[in-house]
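Q: Sequence in, structure out?
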Amino acid sequence: MMYLNTRSVLQDVVRWLESGDEKARNAWKHKTLDISDCISELDQMQRRKRPDKTGSIDVLVSEYNSDACKYETAIPILKTMLTHMTIRDRVAALKSGKAALDVLPL
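A: Exactly. Output:
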């Protein structure tokens, strides 16, 4: 997933939570997995590595990411959302989802 796709997936889950749609039998499971994937992607993006100045792939250095602080702030919020989704607490999950979207860059 790339960042824009990650944000889009989160927005889709928030819209689903707002809708109250329970028609799909495995919707909670799938949406919970989507949030788990978002957390993993943001975690990878905040810790992105690149080869050093010599181009050596043996020595990886942290790549500057101006949004890393925002990802770092959003990840615990998304983990809280994930917990609420696991127990199917729609109201709390929605609150966390909206808070994460407020923190993440557009």
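The mean pLDDT is 85.
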